[in-house]
Design a protein that fits this description.
It is built from three helices and six strands. With 129 residues, the chain is of the alpha+beta class.
Length: 129
């Protein structure tokens, strides 16, 4: 069944209401940063990840469906994305993009198609916008 990219889906360990701020974020091939902000809102769930020095302080918006596992004891969020996919994601600025519907659709499309690599890990489904 197709899922909305802005929903957690079957992420193992996800508990609605858990504050993930400051938690480590792990791509399939290593550490990428920490959670700066997040939303558990139904159909509009996401992570804003601060990549720190890894990509020069860039923040990225990650749809919740990219989350595969949340490690409550280790305070880590695991994604079904590579570092390269995250690095190549469209530029994100909280104050400008968080409420921008067109930008959110661009992000959803990027992660559905896997960006420059094609065949993204996120399932195609109805957008929240």
């Amino acid at each position: 069944m197709a899922e909305n990219v802005w929903s957690y889906g079957q992420a193992f360990g996800h508990l609605v209401g858990t504050d993930l701020s400051g938690w480590r974020v792990e791509a399939t091939d290593g550490h990428i940063g920490k959670v700066d902000k997040h939303s558990d809102e139904v159909g509009d769930s996401y992570l804003v990840v601060d990549t720190g020095v890894w990509i020069f302080g860039k923040e990225v918006l990650i749809p919740a469906s990219a989350v595969t596992r949340i490690d409550l004891e280790g305070e880590a969020v695991h994604l079904d994305l590579t570092k390269e996919q995250i690095k190549d994601a469209p530029e994100f600025h909280s104050d400008k993009h968080l409420a921008d519907r067109q930008y959110r659709e661009e992000i959803a499309t990027y992660y559905r198609t896997g960006g420059p690599f094609g065949g993204g890990p996120l399932k195609d489904g109805p957008s929240a916008f």
